[in-house]
């Protein structure tokens, strides 16, 4: 666990302000030991809060509470340069459930940008990261990195030149000017000739004074050069240190952005995988239900449209086979009876010398014999057509079979009747010729 004695000392002074002092100690120490929070230090200060406003001065007319404040500077990158912004990050009594309360502080020669999107006129910071603060997923390092990113895109403070309201030259140039003025006024120059003219020195003394003055000037020049070299070395050291800090801050910010991107990618991938799995499960369930319903319908249809007709046809087949057997038996009985009756009739006719109807009726000529055969066939065809109509009317004969048989028999009857008409005309002509 990360620990910082300075934070622990401040928390000991605050007593029971925080419900979770271990979390406060860990978060603050982690920020102070990180590259982005190296310029911050913990202090104890008053935080004035009211229902409508939070302030760091008694002008807010709220309840004053001593809290832990992380005070110092954070880095801001603007137009290729790195600047340090004064910040006070207040940790309210409800932290970490409540978000921190950051304030931008001003140096004597600085001013706040008017109508800044994320910084109020009192220096309080407003940003989406604070509005969406969650104790389980947010921390102070990400807050500092987010503020640095926002302030780099839109700086909240600027340096004021004397007599102007815009950004001025850097503090280093003003320090250089002040340093040059101060070192120049340390050793005032004395004019030896003027002193000799006034009777204060002899010629040897004047020469010695001039030489001493030149030595002092050389020493002062060397001292100025050494001081300038020391100042330049110090500036170079500070610049290198600032570059290292800025590099560490940039690396930390890039690492944070990479972590956030990777975390978002993992979350999106997990949600997408979960969504696809849920869709696949629902689709599988839906398809399974539809298949079961279709199978049930097929079973019912099979039972109603296939099995039931097959069973009915099987019963009808058995019945027809039984009827066929009865019919065959009846046919044999009838044929046997007919044979017996025919034999008995022949025996009786032969005994009584009775002639058959065929022997009693005969034709006078071949034409009349042909007419008798055709008339008998015509009558038989008429009877067949009549019985076909009766069978169809009773439902014993399908309509298709009836039509087919009727067509064949009608065609045959037409030819028979035409033949009869032709023979009748021939017979009539023969009779007429015989009469003449």
**Residue share in β-strands:** 5-15%
Q: In one word, what is the shape?
A: rod-shaped
Mean of residue pLDDT?
Answer: 82
The low-confidence parts are 166-201
Report the total helices. Answer: 10
Overview of this protein structure:
By secondary structure, the protein is of the alpha+beta class. The chain has ten helices and seven strands. The protein has helices at residues 5-14, 21-32, 128-131, 140-153, 171-184, 192-197, 203-352, 357-360, 366-394, 399-435; strands at 40-49, 54-55, 63-78, 81-91, 101-104, 110-112, 157-159. A hairpin with a 4-residue loop joins strand 1 (40-49) and strand 2.
Name the features.
436 residues, alpha+beta, five-stranded antiparallel beta sheet, two-stranded antiparallel sheet, 10 helices, 11% strand
Task: Give a quick precis of the structure.
Helix content is 64%, strand content 11%.
Produce the secondary structure layout.
Elements: H1 5-14, H2 21-32, E1 40-49, E2 54-55, E3 63-78, E4 81-91, E5 101-104, E6 110-112, H3 128-131, H4 140-153, E7 157-159, H5 171-184, H6 192-197, H7 203-352, H8 357-360, H9 366-394, H10 399-435
Antiparallel strand pairs: 1-2, 1-3, 3-4, 4-5, 6-7
Helix pairs in contact: 4-7, 9-10
